[in-house]
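Q: What would this chain look like folded?
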Amino acid sequence: MKRLIYLSPVPWASFAQRPQKFIQWFHSCTGGSILWIDPYPTRFPRLSDLQRLKFSENSEMSKCPNWVEVVKPTALPLEPLPGSGWINAFFWQKTINCSVKFAEDHETLIVVGKPSLLALLVLKKLKGLRSVYDSMDDFPSFYRGFTRNSVERREVRLVKSVSDIWVTSTQLKKKWQNIRCDLQFVPNALDASLLPPISIKTEKNQTKIFGYVGTIAEWFDWNWIVALAKARAQDTIRLIGPVFHPARMTLPENIEILPERPHAAALHAMLDFDVGLIPFIKNDLTASVDPIKFYEYRALGLPVMSTNFGEMTFRANEPGTFISERPDDVGAIAELALCFQDDFLSAKKFAIENSWENRFNATKLLT
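A: My prediction, written as structure tokens:
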């Protein structure tokens, strides 16, 4: 029986994302057990972390199935500093020993979702096992100064250490293809089992709803949202999710901000939208992003209006996808999006083709 050690970029008790979907797929295919290793601080703490911690406590993944063992490594938030690995190695010994015991006498796969010193130590200790680095973000872009340089060097070591590397975006493919010509392009996807039936969409009236579901953080483009609200003054701009980066300007009255909700409820809320929005600024942080909400919007038959960033840049010619180059074109783009009409069969086909199950099966990882 296969086993999996998963060093995750997100805590187990967080909004179910690609890491949680992967281990669910792995277990459904193999029946194997999973050792899930939660992330630890890989940068100096910030005051904003307290606010994020408050939101992370409202989790859909608080219950752990009996085939998952969750380990929470202890570490001092020193990783950017030279010698931090020597200090934290004392705290990590229990986690490393647990990993060795878990893999003993079993065919075991190691998957790393974030570059870290602990990940490198686990790979070194369990050398010879098949391993995957699932590169989901350009992690150095989250850091500044010497910390960024440290993360870059650590990530290169990780890429050279694993037997397989996956990338989720074209930008990440360009980043690593000179180091690993054997990389696999594995974009994000959606959980088709959570999708509400499209047939239960509510009746639409003359007022249109341009909606966004997700975190509102430093990558959120408030200028673009305000431009859209002014261009569609008769309509509603509905934003659903936690706000970590409030607008610094007075918002038009037709912008509606609602609290976050569980994933299934958030998907149901999308049924009220006429157009799904992805308003992210274009910078180093978003250049490698493949937004999951794109797949969810389109699987529900919604047209998508997006700024020109990350993987969305390459979707300008895809059905129902409308890319805005700048805030002053949003009025024209909105009209085009509202004219788009999808049908049930096309949306269902899109959902199946872009499901997590289909995406991970295509990697041939378990064959």
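The radius of gyration is 21 Å.
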